[in-house]
Amino acid sequence: MDAILKTENLVMTYRVGRVDVNALRGVNLSVGRGEFVSIMGPSGCGKSTMLHILGGLLKPTSGKVIVDNEDMAGMTDAERTDTRRRKIGFVFQRFNLFPTLTAEGNLRLAEQIHGNGKKVVDEEVRREVLRLLRLENKMRHKPLELSGGEQQRVAIARAIITRPAIILADEPTGNLDSENSEIVLEMLQKLNRELNQTIVMITHNPEAAAVAARTVHMRDGMIVGEK
Amino acid sequence: MDNLVASNIRQRPTRTLLSVAGVALGVVLIVLNTGLVEGMLNDRIKRERGVGAEIRFGRSGAMLSPSSSNPVDVRYADRLMKIEGVGQVSPVGYYIQSGNSGLGMEIVEGVEFESYSAITGAKVVEGNAPKTDQEVMIDEFKALHNKLKVGSDIQVFGETKKVSGIYSPQVGSRIKMPLSALQNALSAEGKCFEILVKVKDPEKQDDVRQRILDELPGNEILLTRDLGVGVGREIPGIKGFVRAVLVLSVIVSALVILLAMYTTITERTREIGILKSLGASKGFIIGVIEKEALTISLIGVLVGLIISMIAAWALERATTLQLEFTWSWILRAGLIGLGAGALGALYPAIRAANKDAVQALSYE
To answer: How distant, in Å, are the alpha carbons of A89, A95, B262 from that of B352?
Structure first.
């Protein structure tokens, strides 16, 4: 399978006071185009750090991070921001929607940032995404007027509306009850299947991880296995 | 409007209101002060130009700053009359007191009414010219605005005097009293501030001025037609005052916006992290914050202008102060308001743009 995301010997060392903390110790990961991969591991194993590096929010200490043929490790902050804008969509545990904007406003903002001020969104894709996520009737609501599951679906719509190469989801069901978790996981599966969307998802939950085609296990900043 | 800038402005009404008030205050400071300066100067210039005397004779260096010092010896009047081309002279004394409403200041003129009337054409239209030291005369404008009539009480020199008459047209200051009474009150017998000189042939006023300069050197001789040319340069301190008001306005507006935006940025740290995760560039984030500040500033400018107009209307009704608004100052006040807002928001905006995305996202 053609790899859309690849890390080579990824190392991340934080300096906390006078102590070096090795968050990642040479991670090699390859994700194919259209693949749904989950990453599991105990707290502090480096999952979130890796997700932040994959999304260009952090710069690794060493190693390579190749996203859709672009090595983000050697990029400046501005270049990583630009790559993130064009190729990556984030979904967070706490939804991270703008509370003052409606669901529609949140999507429009993402579109505006993605288009760098120009209108670049395919209305057909937009309709399809809203249909898949069953959000057609929720667009005029502000986040606080929506349930947790609905908020997370809006957050997923925001991440996918610009058709990024990869969706990076950080514990997307961590703040949801089991019913809403199921709905959100089903949505992610649908997006993966029907839109061939590449998804990398971090989770603690083995049931959530099970919806992915492949699960990668991490421990102490390293990949220790996958199935 | 469902965009980030508009929704943030609506979402934080107290912050928005305070910021608008800060910018509006700056605009009011500029518009009212410059309006007052322009209005008072132009009103005075108009009335001074209307006196009918082509030449003003006074003490060198004292002519441009009206004061109660009255340094000119009235005997110069006789010497001036003897100069070829001089048709009429009239000594005028000054006393400066605070405005009757407690705002601004007003000049009380001491005149020899006969010679003054001969030069200016001022006529008593109601009552009569003052005959005692306890009487003064006012013009129609002051009578109308201060609701005064013949027989009314008026405060001059901190004393209550009677209005003996109302004169027209509006020339010179709005309150006049006999020159001898003013000299007595100021213990300045035989002194005046300036001597008005009417020439026989206005075409030859330059020649007459030169002759006065030649015959009475060491004095200042102004042509009335030159009054108002470069007002800012003529009145000492005016330019500095206006500049100080401008600087103060910029500081007030910029500081208010800076504090408001700085607080907002701290409150919205997490939102800035979200913007970064969506791929927003530093320029985009700075743009969002600057647009917000500019929108608030624009509202502040409009509110400031409206308040200024209302305040001007109220001031003109309550006092004899004249305010004059010019488009150039309104435009400058608007630009200063917007500029100060943009400037004040710049530092918080840059700070926001430079925030660490991961830390911002985990901000509680």
So the answer is: 21, 21, 9
Residue from B91, B97, B47 nearest B68 by CA: B97
Longest CA–CA separation in chain B, Å: 92
Chains A–B, number of C-beta pairs less than 8 Å apart: 70
The pLDDT value given to residue B233: 45
Q: Which residues of B touch A90 (CB under 8 A)?
A: 277-278
How do B159-168 and B123-127 pair as beta strands?
antiparallel
Report how many helices (DSSP H) and strands (DSSP E) chain B contains, helices first: 13, 12
Beta-strand ranges (E) seen in chain A are 3-16, 19-32, 36-40, 62-67, 70-71, 88-91, 166-170, 198-203, 214-219, 222-226
pLDDT digits (tens, 9 = 90+) for B227-244: 765 444 455 566 777 788
Q: Which of B4, B284, B358 sits opposite A52 (nearest CB)?
A: B358
Helix, strand or coil, per DSSP, at residue B17: helix
The nearest CA of chain B is from the CA of A125 a distance in Å of: 19
Q: What is the pTM of this model?
A: 0.77
* ipTM metric: 0.92
For testing contact with chain A, the best of B277, B284, B285, B364 (most A CBs within 10 A): B277
Q: What confidence score (pLDDT) does residue B101 get?
A: 62
Q: Residue ranges of chain B with pLDDT lower than 70? A: 1-2, 62-66, 100-104, 228-238
User: Which pLDDT score is estimated for B260?
Assistant: 83
Tokens standing for residue B351: 């700070």
Residues in chain A whose Cβ is within 8 Å of chain B: 52, 55, 57-58, 78, 81-82, 84-86, 88, 90, 92, 96-102, 104-105, 108-110, 113-114, 158
Residue spans of the domains in chain B: they are 4-41+238-361, 61-217
For residue range A10-28, list pLDDT tens digits in order: 999 988 888 888 999 999 9
Residue A167 structural domain: 3-226
Residue A33 has pLDDT above 70, yes or no: yes
Distances in whole angstroms, Cα of residue B233 to Cα of each of B229, B239, B248: 8, 7, 21
Q: What is the CATH number of the domain that holds A57?
A: 3.40.50.300
Closest chain B residue to A50, measured at CA: B358
For residue A97, list chain B residues with Cβ-Cβ distance below 8 A. Answer: 274
Residue B305 has, within 13 A of its CA and on its CB side, a CA count of: 18
> A52–B274: do the CB atoms touch at under 8 Å?
no
Total domain count for chain A? 1
Q: Do A96 and B274 touch (CB under 8 A)?
A: yes
Give the DSSP letter string of B289-326.
HHHHHHHHHHHHHHHHHHHHHHHHHHHHHHSS------
Amino acid at B59: R
